[in-house]
Amino acid sequence: MNSRHLTLIAIALLALIWSFLAPFTITLLNYIGLYSMVAVGLVLLTGVGGMTSFGQAAFVGLGAYATAWICTSPVAQAALASLPPGLVPWLGLLLGLAVTALIAWALGAVTLRLSGHYLPLGTIAWGLSLYYIFGNLEMLGGFTGITGVPPLTLFGMDLSSPRALGILIWVVLLLSIWTLHNLLDSREGRAIRSLKTGRVMAESMGVDTARQRIKLFVLAALLAAVSGWMYAHLQRFVNPTPFNINIGIEYLFMAVVGGSGYLWGAVLGATLITLLKEQLQDLLPKLLGASGNFEVIVFGLLMLLVLQRAAEGLWPLFAAGTRKFLKPIPPRANSAAPAELATRALPDAGSVVLQADEVTKRFSGLIANNAVNLTVKSGEVHALIGPNGAGKSTFFNMISGVDDPTSGSVKLMGQDMKTKPSRAFAALGLGRTFQHVRLLGQRSVLENVALGAHLRGHRGWMSAMLRLDRREEAALLAEARRQIERCGLLEYIDTPAASLPLGQQRIVEIARALAGQPAILLLDEPAAGLRHLEKQSLAALLTQLRAEGLAILVVEHDMEFVMNLADRITVLEFGTVIASGSPAQVQADPRVMAAYLGGDLPEGAA
Ligand SMILES: Nc1ncnc2c1ncn2[C@@H]1O[C@H](COP(=O)(O)OP(=O)(O)OP(=O)(O)O)[C@@H](O)[C@H]1O
């Protein structure tokens, strides 16, 4: 038995005993289900996507108020008089989802541009604003709220009792977890996970990070709105109190304490915080002899403790505990026949793939690149060398769309790339690695490499959620596997990338770049951290890629590696090209010897 079986057994047991549970237990379980919906959205947003929000309670409010308003307002009732009354709450759900999507999109468009601490501060600001809007709008009943919200009916079934509505709450929650799990286990899921490592890597893989962030934000808000909709029909009245910023913070507690990177962590967190709140609200006033929301202080302390002792939350500990007596979960089988992936015809041998003309980059007074000219042709290895601070990384950024030159131009496959983002470079066939390795450390080598093939698939979120992307996914994973094998990493295919030595992580980055089927490969210090034999196999791999017609640009400090491999070398010093030519010409150039090598011959050079 594995933990997936255990989950199914737990769900079946809950379903069996549901009719026999005490009303109080049903109430608790209903609230746990409702809170879990919101916390699951936060896991996606914060734990997976790296965006913290304190304002989710406001979206719960939007879902609750939309349905409460449409079900009770005389204006809406007059307009909908011809409809069967049981249908109106479902229109309330549609209205809630539409309003939430619109507001979340607008708020996201403004807030998600903020970085660092400003993003959570921004969410507090709009969380407070929405709360006061609920309280001050007369049509929403002000701070008194709206009473007389009708119960839900579904295909004629009456869901007025908490026991009946609870079934809907848990079915919706479990379906949400299933679809989100599917989403994370897909091409789009890998793109979502890549957001946390920062925009540069994700964009270089072809991921439109701004779009992914806003979609994630709207999805988390919609989950909160669905929770609010069910909450309104459970309580039968709404007022602003449950949607204030304190509750927004409690939702964040749930996600973080449970384990903000794990969907089931949200359920664990929601369960713990709900049960704890229940106990503390009774206990603390008795202990302290005064009434108040003292439980918030305990939650704060609990969160500090959890963050200190188990930064990933309690779910990984819980899962590790169950693993002792359960078998590991086998990877989800995908027996679909692989779809055809988009393929790229490589440019003719010897044709110019990348052309940098007079590229200059100024940082205030400092000229990091000074009118640099460089071309890379298909079927050649071009090395860019120079002492520390010569401007190599800056130039790399200029030719990969991370930054724009102050003047000069960069052409990729003959196209002017001025102001184009990195993902446009990736779309034209530029694959790259990073000086400081950027991998999804906790994910397997296979998933990391598959991210490199992002642009070769096209299935979106909906397909992934409903598992309609299986053929494409099989093809992407097969392609990733091929590249892993080609780079000699097959034995580590299921290993989390972070547990590999740094040198091998660099090779994983190369495999990831190759999965995108590039026409040009930019490698930033690929040999750093590799042992002698590993360097030799890297050189063999690059030689083979060159023979296949790839254009390769390498920035490298290891002179032996460069001199033995490169067809042409460009030498930078203080941002200026001081020499360019074959390894022999460069080694013989007195300026190179003087400036770069202190007058000595290059290490490893003949
Ligand atoms: N964002 C920035 N703002 C200001 N100065 C910068 C910035 N980025 C780089 N520089 C400066 O530009 C110069 C070139 O730096 P760059 O990192 O490109 O050199 P490098 O050749 O890659 O060095 P290394 O081999 O150590 O990586 C350095 O003087 C550096 O301090």
From TrEMBL:
- Per the record, the coiled-coil ranges are none
- Cross-referenced SMART domains: AAA
- The protein's superkingdom reads Bacteria
Q: Which PANTHER family match?
A: ABC TRANSPORTER ATP-BINDING PROTEIN, CONSERVED COMPONENT OF ABC TRANSPORTER FOR NATURAL AMINO ACIDS-RELATED
| CDD domains, sorted | ABC_Mj1267_LivG_branched (cd03219), TM_PBP1_LivM_like (cd06581)
Q: How does it sit in the membrane?
A: Multi-pass membrane protein
Name where it's found: Cell membrane
* Protein name in UniProt: Branched-chain amino acid transport system permease protein
UniProt keywords (A-Z) are: ATP-binding, Cell membrane, Membrane, Nucleotide-binding, Transmembrane, Transmembrane helix, Transport
Mark the transmembrane ranges.
31-50, 57-81, 87-110, 164-184, 214-232, 252-275, 287-307
InterPro entries to which the protein is assigned, alphabetical? AAA+_ATPase, ABC_AA/LPS_Transport, ABC_transp_permease, ABC_transporter-like_ATP-bd, BCA_ABC_TP_C, LivM-like, P-loop_NTPase
Domain (ABC transporter) spans 354-599
